[in-house]
Every structure is written in structure tokens, then in C-alpha cells.
Amino acid sequence: MRDALLRRLDDEREGLIAFLQGFLRARSANPPGDTWEAARHIGAFLDAAGAPWRVASAKDHLPNIVGSFDGGRPGRHLVLNGHIDVFPPLDEGGWSGERRDGKLFGRGAADMKAGTAAGVIAYAWLHGVRDELAGRLTLTAVSDEQTGGRWGTRWLFETMGDQVRGDCCLNGEPSGLNNVRFMEKGTLRLIITIEAPGGHGGYPHLSRNPNKVAASLIAEMDRRFHMREAPLPEAVARALTTPEAVAVLEAGMGPGAAEVVRRMTFNPGVLRGGLKVNQIPHECVLEADIRIPVGIDRDAVLAEVAEVCAAHDARFAVVEAHSYPGSMADPDGEMLRIVQDNAEAATGKRPVPMSSLGGSDSRYWRWEGVPAYLYGPSPVSMGRGDEHVTEEEYLAVVRVHLLSAYDYLRRSAPRQAPG
């Protein structure tokens, strides 16, 4: 059966590329968030394969595609997860789906329509051989990952529970073919406001300057938080510091990534203050993002934020939709090893276990104690004007997701009853 699936990948290469091109041409920017065009493209592909699916939506303009089927015998439950929504493009050329020089261009090519397409294809094709499988396979293609997941994966967990939880999750977020992501940092997204009477710039004795206060506050938060090292679990620290892991991190995410991945980071991303150069501002607003590795207490960090803000007579609010704890799965888990085996067969190189620098919906599964892993194309071009995926890496991701889902369910043992 594996040989038959491999032959089919070769035979239907052009059709798989055409499917991704159509997906890239389907508008699904979030914001504003209407993803129906892209959702219908996925639905048409699943209908052609005879695979079951339905729309589950909290918001009319944000359709989530959910499908499940059972194999020929009892076993475990694997969930394939990806998102439909993408960053807004720079211009209309972002919806081109152009094929040029062995690459496919378009908004979401890397983040994450190529990876979502891999999950859709794996789900559709394995439905055709479901009698060979044990357990259940579920597809969740969601429409609200880019803006926090409130109406996407989070809503599915709140309303569908065990139907989407499963025993393992495989996600196609961009990682690079040379690594499998098992962990990601948590976040604190903050809005800090500093107020004062303000006034004429020549009368500094009458009002403090909120911009100056913000500069002092930023310096203090940078001193406290930026590049603070996390006391990682031994197995995680070992996985992230092998020579192979360091080389992959530095090559894929730039020099210094091997240090950043194990440390907290502080980014003052937006600063707004002042109306005119010779005025003392009446207000300065700082928007900041703190990334917190597993091993550092997020609540303790929040307490420090409150301390710094109090010392500067500033008030702050946490943007809850974009603030959450870190998450991790076993860096030597079964699915990770299955993905490694299939990726090595596809590319000739064995990917290393790795942590993400950004966030993904995989956290929802990990928070429930369900191992979740990411394997997808290169993240380097995501969000850029020339966002793209090479044909070969896209087809490699499809192959790895298809065969890894097949292997996981083929070797699936029946679930044990509680107790």
C-alpha cells in the first residue's frame, strides 16, 4: 500500500501542484477574514475524493472545515490540522498562484497553504484506503489562526471536544524540511499607557514627558526580560543543543537563533506618542510582545511587568487573544520519529527535533496533553511580497504527511479503556 501511495504521488504530481495553485488564488486574508473562497476550494477537492466533511463555524465569514472517518479496525485517533486564513497580501499580485522557476508564488504559500494542502490531500487519499487503517483520522482546516484562533481551533475545542482532540496531531506549519517542531514559546502581548498633563515643550517643569518615561520603561523591561535563559527540561535542552540542532537553527533562522530559541525575548513593537515636535505629549502608548520559553513561569513574568509599570506610573493591559502559555510534546515521541523516517526517505536528510520561534494552533493539543508536531516548508519567505514554496519542498511535505498519517494508523493499537 505504501508503494501504491508513492506511485500515486508521482502520477498525480501535476494535479497536486494545480490544487495548491488554486488554493493560493483563493482569497482568504485575515483580517478581514472572509475565507469562503478558499474553503470552497478545499471542499471541492474533498468532494471529488468522496471524503466526508462539513463546515463548523462560529462566525459566518470564518468557515472551519472538519471531517472524520474510521478505519477498518479499532485504534488511535490522529488529527491533521492546518489553517486557511493568511496574512493580507501587499497587492493583488499576492493572489497570483504563479508557477515560475520551480516555485509557486502567492500569499500563504509558506504560511500555511502548502502545509494545509498536505493535510487535506493526506485525509482525502487515506479515506480511499480506510479499510487498511486502524482508528480514526480527522481533518481540521480552520479560518482564524492568524488573529489568535478564537473562532478557529479554540472554538472547535470548546464546542466539539473529543471529536477534534484525538491522540496525536500533525500540523503543516512552516518549519523547513530539516526539522520537526515539538515545542513553542508562550506569549504576553501588552498595551502599556503612560499619561501626563502635557504642554509646551519649553515648559518641562510643568509636566513629565510620557515619551521619556516610555524610553526608561522600555530600557528596564529589556534589561529584565530580553534574552533571559529558560531552565529547560533535560530532554528538551539536549535536543536543542546538539551540534545538528544548532546547525539547523542557524541555517534556517539566521545566526543567533540557537540562543534565542532557549531564551525569553522582549520586543517593543509599536510606540505612539506626541502630536507636534514642540509639545510635551499628553500620552504615549507602547505595544510590546514578550516570548516566554517553557521553563519560565509566565505568571511570575506578568508580576514583574506590573512592578515595572507601577514604578513608572504606567497602566497596562494584556491582550488575551494573543497571550498564552508555552507548550511542548516529547522531543522523542512516536510521531516525531515517524515523520523523521519519512522525511529522511523523501529528502535524504533526517530532520532534527526543534522549537518554534512563533506560535501555532498546535498549542491547543499540547495543552490537552496530546502530542502535536509541525512539519512544513521553509518559513523564510512567509509574509514577504515574494512569498513562495518550491515545488519539490511542497511535494515532499505532502509525501511526509501522507505516509506519516498512514504509518501512525497502520501501526495503531486499540485505545485502552480508562482505569
Short description:
With 419 residues, the chain is of the alpha+beta class. The chain is built from 14 helices and 18 strands.
List the helices and strands and how they pair.
Blueprint lengths: L1 H10 L1 H13 L10 H14 L4 E3 L7 E7 L2 E11 L15 E2 L2 E3 L3 H19 L6 E9 L10 H8 L1 H4 L2 E4 L7 E6 L1 E10 L3 E2 L9 H16 L8 H8 L1 H11 L3 H4 L4 E9 L5 E2 L2 E10 L5 H14 L3 E4 L8 E2 L5 H14 L4 E5 L5 H6 L4 E3 L13 E3 H20 L9
Parallel strand pairs: 3-6, 3-7, 7-17, 8-16
Antiparallel strand pairs: 1-2, 2-6, 4-5, 5-18, 8-15, 9-13, 9-14, 10-12, 11-13
Helix pairs in contact: 1-14, 2-3, 2-4, 3-4, 4-14, 7-11, 12-14
Supply the key terms:
Aminopeptidase; four-stranded antiparallel sheet; Alpha-Beta Plaits; six-stranded mixed sheet; alpha+beta; 419 residues; 2 domains; globular
